[in-house]
Every structure is written in structure tokens, then in C-alpha cells.
Amino acid sequence: MTRRTPVRTAVVAAAVLLAGAGPAHASGSTSPDTRTAHHAVAAKPAPRRIAALFDRWNAALATRNARTVAALYAPDAVLLPTQSSEIRTTHDRIVDYFEHFLQQKPRGRIQERHITVLGPRSAIDTGLYEFTLTDKNGKAGRTDARYTFVYELRGGHWLIVNHHSSVVP
């Protein structure tokens, strides 16, 4: 019987992962849930996968449903919103913010982004975005803002755990 050192175990696990990746890996799949049978190694998501999370969030804004948007946030998420000085730390307070924000029919567009994949289960998307907002009189205007989204994979779903947005000075 041979003793396995932690390094040898990691090397064996990596070899199993690479050998088992086969067609899924070759086809460009970047599933963040790809793991060995022993859950020793997980693949990091591709930056494009993280970038798509903004598109998902922006599409949720287009529904004009605050609960749909808030569902993208983890239960313990922190939201530092653009148009409120209140730090939102509960699901109900996040819903409250979006109930007001969505009245302006926001449409977001990324101007510049920097994605950092921290590991197989977490990533940061930060940069500049522009919002087209409609006032009570139906007049559309633009707002440039800085943003940071911190995402975490929980229960098989990428959720926002921290979102900071502030108007560009």
C-alpha cells in the first residue's frame, strides 16, 4: 500500500480531470461545475461567462419587475446603489430599491470592463457603464456610472454577492 502525499493526490486529481474533460473541454465548454469524482479540482469560468452575467442582469431590468432583478442577488448580498444613499443588505431592501429604479426604464450598456476570475466559484466584473433613464415626463437621459459586481457560484447558480454603482464624478 502506498501513501499519497497531498501533492501527488493533487497531480492525480488534475490528471483525472484532464482525462475526463474529453469532448466537453474540446468543444469550449467552460462549465464552472466540472469536477473530478472526488471534487478535488474545479474549472474556472471563462471571462465571457462572467460578462454574460451582466447581460442577464440587464435583461432582468428590462422586465421592469423588481423581484426578478432581486432574484439575481444572493440572500446575503450587499447593494450600494447609484440612486440611493442607503446600503441595501436584505432581499426586501434590494427589491425596494429596484421598485423605484425600474420606474425610470433603465437600459444599461458597458463602456469599459475588467473581469477578474478569482477561482472556480467567484469572479469580479468592474468598470464603467452607461444607463439610459426615462424621467416622469418621458424624456430619456444618460447617466455614466462606475460599477463593481462580485459574483459567487451558489447551488449551481451565479449570484451577485456585492454590487456597487456610483455616478462618475
TrEMBL record:
InterPro entries: Ca/CaM-dep_prot_kinase-assoc (IPR013543), NTF2-like_dom_sf (IPR032710), Steroid_delta5-4_isomerase (IPR011944), UCP028470_steroid_isom-rel (IPR016887). The keyword Cytoplasm does not apply. Gene3D superfamilies: 3.10.450.50. Pfam families: CaMKII_AD (PF08332). Residues 48-168 form the Calcium/calmodulin-dependent protein kinase II association-domain domain. GO terms for molecular function: kinase activity. The keyword Ribonucleoprotein does not apply. Residues 1-26 form the signal peptide. It comes from the Bacteria. Residues 22-42 are annotated as: Disordered. Keywords: Kinase, Signal, Transferase. This is Calcium/calmodulin-dependent protein kinase type II. It comes from Streptomyces blastmyceticus.
